[in-house]
Amino acid sequence: MYIWLTIIAGLAVLPFLLKTVFDPYFGQDCSYIFKAIKLGIRLQKYKKKKPFYSILDCFLDTVKKQPNKTFLHFEGTSHSYIEVDKQSNKVARALKTHANLKEGDTVALFMGNEPSYACIWLGLAKLGCATALLNFNIRSKSLLHCFSCCGAKVIIAAAELKEAVEEVLPTLKQRGISVYLLSEECSVEGINPLSEHITQASDTPLSADLRANITSKSPALYIYTSGTTGLPKAALVTQERVWTASFIQAVSGVTSQDVFYINLPLYHSAGFLIGLTGAIERGITVVLRRRFSASQFWEDCRRHNVTVMQYIGETMRYLCNTPMKDNEKDHKVRIAIGNGVRSDIWREFLNRFGDVAVRELYAATEGNIGFINYTSKIGVVGRVNFLHRRLFPYTLIKFDIEKEEPVRNSKGLCIQAMKGEAGLLVGKITKRSPFVGYAGNDQQTEKKRLRDVLQTGDLYFNTGDLLRIDEQNFVQFQDRVGDTFRWKGENVATTEVADILTMVDCIVEANVYGVKVEGHEGRIGMAAVKVEEGKEFDGASTFSQVASYLPAYARPRFIRIQSSFEMTGTFKMKKVTLVEEGFNPAAVQDPLYFLDPAKKTYVPLTEEIYSSINTREIKL
């Protein structure tokens, strides 16, 4: 009897053993699918709870379970879960009293990385308010736009950003927007100091009735992403979406014993959703830093026993560019979660800093499809598996780079890309994988919807990214299409940069694009410009204009002077040839200029400068 049971059990297991032999990733696929199913069941459970169980409720439960565990390490000071909870209670009470906030209101948060960021967000969540996470690099027109599109009536700004707020204060007053500064005092009329009110407020818990009507579909956050409009787009992040993003740490293998290092900006999805809310979901300790520092990175990791780090492609490259040391592998980091790292940098990182499980991912704040590389395969962002594709239907379709549009057949439907062929990634819009869109921007929301893809009447989300699936079912990121490119971990909208350039007195037209630079991730900004007849290009005025209105990562480092632009049949400026030709003065006949920050002007791009860029003597 036992012999027969053993034989039957062996025959049942045999297919799995054979599959493992012929597919070395089968076990990892199964592990990923099992985790995904468990997390999916958890999310459904939270959604069915009355009232809805949010990430805030998860935080409050963690406070009860481990009140004295450190939640945030920041600049030599530790803040426990209970301390952050009490401080967020004080924030909520101060804002409820002085800003008259109530459930459903939206508040814009304009500050850099610090513990107050988490405390204010949690305080707002306790009032049932959504938070708009503003990029602290934006100014002027972009800053004002961010309020109007998300409907924020209140802005809370860090003390060091007072001047940026003052620039737009007259318009804010005109629009009836209340301005609060995290400062004890402020002499500027119309800017209200908030710190004293927070200090004097009670830290006792607030009633859950204040947020009783929050559901899984309620707005939780607005996170801004660049687009072809030239202004930031407010991606609406629902309460359900917060949970989904927070699960990335769990899928990556992070446990409740880990210590997570955040040095990416909290206004980004990576730092806030994957990092901060992911840490709350796991109940772990976060080491928070104002900004990334390559020279201090490993010292921070050693000092705080960091076990999980975040990265973007530039982070990895900067770390690999630091001088080599004997103790480079002397750390406890075991997992790295992020995106945008090149294969060569990936290999160099592992060779220098040890056996770290790199969890490269692909996702977009507003998107309905994403991947994560849960294997040890270098250079990929994920794997195709039946469960993922069934729950979140997606496909790669052929895309015409020149026309910047999908290729369609005689029936008007898109054509699926072949295996191994780069194609535009599109995700089917369903109840389970919705595309909520951009707040206050129906035009841009509609632009991301792609109709009649595989069947007449179907609807897909257009990621704007080219990916490919290889013969082993690994997913590889190829490139971005359209009017946005990525540099220094930030999206740069070409139309916004072009608008700024054409405000220069001598420039009448500008065609902005990103070009590759050897040894760097992403694409750096370059602009072909047409100078007004009878005038000469003014490098100093152009520098002054871009420095005043654009953050450093969005300023075009190269300028190409052209007498005319090549246009498409629909009167769009052609960029493909310009991108291919790049900024090599030996290959480009037009005059070229280079942004020199030290001289505060654009200088002629010589062979010597070009060589120094390629040898990295000139830092970009």
TrEMBL record:
Catalytic EC class: ligase
Signal peptide residues on this chain, from the entry's feature table: 1-19
Keyword Transferase applies: no
UniProt xrefs under InterPro entries: AMP-bd_C, AMP-bd_C_sf, AMP-binding_CS, AMP-dep_synth/lig_dom, ANL_N_sf
GO biological process, one term: long-chain fatty acid import into cell
This enzyme's EC code(s): 6.2.1.3
Domain AMP-binding enzyme C-terminal: from-to ranges: 496-572
One function term, GO molecular function aspect: long-chain fatty acid transmembrane transporter activity
SUPFAM superfamilies for this protein: Acetyl-CoA synthetase-like
Pfam families (UniProt xref): AMP-binding, AMP-binding_C
Coiled-coil features, chain-numbered ranges: none
Catalytic reactions on record: a long-chain fatty acid + ATP + CoA = a long-chain fatty acyl-CoA + AMP + diphosphate; a very long-chain fatty acid + ATP + CoA = a very long-chain fatty acyl-CoA + AMP + diphosphate; tetracosanoate + ATP + CoA = tetracosanoyl-CoA + AMP + diphosphate
Membrane topology: Multi-pass membrane protein
GO CC terms: endoplasmic reticulum membrane; plasma membrane
Domain AMP-dependent synthetase/ligase: start-end pairs: 61-373
Cellular location(s): Cell membrane
Record carries keyword Transferase: no
Protein keywords: Cell membrane, Fatty acid metabolism, Ligase, Lipid metabolism, Lipid transport, Membrane, Nucleotide-binding, Signal, Transmembrane, Transmembrane helix, Transport
Similarity annotation: Belongs to the ATP-dependent AMP-binding enzyme family.
Protein name according to UniProt: long-chain-fatty-acid--CoA ligase
Gene name per UniProt: zgc:101540
